[in-house]
Amino acid sequence: MENEENVVRLAKPQKKGILKLVFSRFILIFLLFALELAMLISGYFYLADRFPSIIYIWRIFSLVMVLYLFNCSMDNSAKLTWMLLISILPIAGTVFLLFTQTNVGHRMTKKLLREQIDLTRTILPQPQDAADAPADDPSGSSDLSTYLCRTGCFPLFGHTAVTYFPSGEEKFAAMLEELEKAEKYIFMEYFIIEEGYMWGKILDVLIRKAKEGLDVRVMYDGMCEMSTLPADYRKLLEKEGIRAKSFSPIKPILSSQYNYRDHRKILVIDGKVAFNGGVNLADEYINRIERFGHWKDTAVMLKGEAVKSFTLLFLQMWNIGSKEPDYERFINRQTDAPVNAAGFVMPYGDSPLDGYKVGEAVYMDILNRAESYVHIMTPYLILDGELETALRFAAQRGVDVKMILPGIPDKSLPYALAKSHYKALLAAGVKIYEYTPGFVHAKVFVSDDVKAVVGTINLDYRSLYHHFECATYLYKTPCIADVEADFQQTLAKCRAVTEETVKNEKFTRKLVGTLAKFIAPLL
Known about the structure:
The chain has 22 helices and 18 strands. By secondary structure, it is an alpha/beta fold. It folds into three domains: about 100 residues, no CATH class; about 240 residues, Endonuclease Chain A (Endonuclease, Chain A), CATH 3.30.870.10; about 160 residues, 2-Layer Sandwich (Endonuclease, Chain A), CATH 3.30.870.10. Strands 5, 10, 11, 12, 13, 15, 16, 17 and 18 form a nine-stranded mixed sheet that branches. A seven-stranded mixed sheet has the order 1-9-7-6-2-3-4, with helices on both faces. The radius of gyration is 24 Å and the shape is globular.
């Protein structure tokens, strides 16, 4: 009975009245941000009034920043956006660019993460049997493994059984079953944790396991404390024996580091089992509640050697700023017999702070090497020039490129932006479909019946450039057939997008998409 009361207190949604909203932490931080901005703007006008020559200094400085943009390694689409912003608002645009490029908080996070990656760069050696097996295969899995090992520590593993889940409900049932089997530790890292039925059932298991002496750790993105969780939730979990951290919690201080969110979804149990995919820990992901029609999502469960990579990914984020990182206790300590499974598995992570565009590189590699088909599910479509060119080129050289996107959007602006890409993609031969029952949140690539990716990485600037992400690359694993079968079953519930439907799209949506394209890299 006592444990049930704990779950109710920690996982039951609380009603939010208008007074509670007005005096909420979100409103307070918003007002403090607005006050800081007002002070900066007032300070500029005060100086401009007292020292008129400052305007000419700013114009020269704006020119310097434009020259900086021409020579920096920033994505070309982002460069164009910044140049447009500076041309329209020279002073505000220049200050904003300078702010995003020099922020101390951003640099500190980058330094701390780099320390963890450098510390663990060789902790997972590439198994020789997995390295040799696909070496002569035209799919390029071996080359991709070389690239991913260069960006971090993401070897290609054999001896890993993979189960594909075509819905959040199926993943949730498997999660509960595997959590009950935990004997040593449970590591959870999720972008969203929201109080409700799903989290309540999971939390019930976590509390019991913590009381049994297991090392239970929960990490969630700091934005949760602004929207789905109380500000003191970490302390509430710790009272139940669960070690908890929030990544980059929002504080009333202007900082560009808030732009980098932890969008990963990882569960590791005893180093033997790992889950990955698009499913967060909130009730809409299992269709317990309805927000945007039926919620279509996907996930995978790994058992075997490749679980080590997800253990490492979790610990790298958990240990940021830690003086005594604990890798050796959890990495390469598994002594169980190898899992007898066909194919190869390569989990990988993507950081916005390391200079590598890992998520985009993997997707483009699949598109560029495809021979027969590439089938894609994604909730958002906000493309840079390189990725749009890769999609169009694949279709133009005869590859069957099909994309499934939401029929019911969760956000109107990204929906309009996605549609702004439709005309060019259709003209190149890309086939686009919209899921009529509701919202597609799945992030899936499957190609030629031999490779697939299931993970957290959307086809938009947020995922590809600004978020910490992770995914699972599959090569010749039996479950790839399940991924393709799920795509076809989902496709049967979709409407086709044609040149005629694009032409008849609402004028206001076309206008919003066209205008928003100018600032897409900042969204």
